[in-house]
Design goal:
The protein has six helices and two strands, in the order ααααββαα. It is mainly alpha-helical and 178 residues long. β1 and β2 form a beta hairpin. α1 runs antiparallel to α2, α2 runs parallel beside α6 and α4 packs antiparallel against α6. The chain is elongated and about 65 Å long. The chain starts with 15 loop residues before the first helix and ends in a 6-residue tail after the last helix.
């Protein structure tokens, strides 16, 4: 189940923001799962095909490689929504509910700042490759900006999840903040 700090623990529908965040995380996780299945299938195909003496071409290496990169960046937001990111539970659990919300807020703000800097760099890379018309010769001559675009997208989605988690935690009140 997709949850955020302070999510509706009573099994209810939750707020509009909470439902929207859950839906977004579900879509991200489904997309990542699909990409992983495709990457696994292509890799398995390439292994079998090459072991039977055939050549698969460079695409069989580049497609799974790009899919795994995309999974990393697009999957970050879903991971944040599931609270699967690394955190110091033993320390945070000793804090009061207010302290937990403050720690979650500080952590999210730092995360958003760091991811924001990385996202600006990623957007710059996408813009530069689009501006010069760069293509990836080993990957069907696809435009490089297209191959790089999931990076800033995933970073922005993760920032949205971080901010939404803080908003939901502060809305929930002391008794449900974790």
């Amino acid at each position: 189940m997709i949850t955020h700090p302070g999510a509706d623990a009573g099994g209810g529908q939750g707020s509009t923001l909470e439902r929207l965040v859950r839906r977004l995380a579900w879509i991200e996780i489904a997309l990542v799962a699909s990409m992983l299945v495709v990457a696994f299938g292509i890799t398995l195909y390439a292994i079998v095909w090459r072991n039977t003496g055939h050549s698969t071409g460079d695409w069989a290496l580049h497609v799974p490689e790009n899919l795994l990169i995309w999974c990393t960046f697009i999957g970050m937001g879903g991971l944040v929504a599931e609270q699967g990111h690394v955190r110091m539970d033993m320390l945070v659990d000793r804090l009061s509910p207010f302290g937990r919300r403050m720690a979650a807020t500080a952590s999210a703000l730092i995360g958003v700042a760091v991811l924001g800097v990385i996202a600006v760099g990623a957007m710059s890379m996408v813009w530069q490759t689009w501006r010069i018309g760069q293509t990836d010769e080993e990957f069907f001559d696809l435009p490089s900006w297209l191959l790089l675009s999931p990076l800033p997208l995933g970073l922005v989605l993760t920032m949205i999840h971080l901010v939404a988690g803080v908003v939901l935690a502060w809305r929930a009140g002391d008794e449900r903040t974790r």
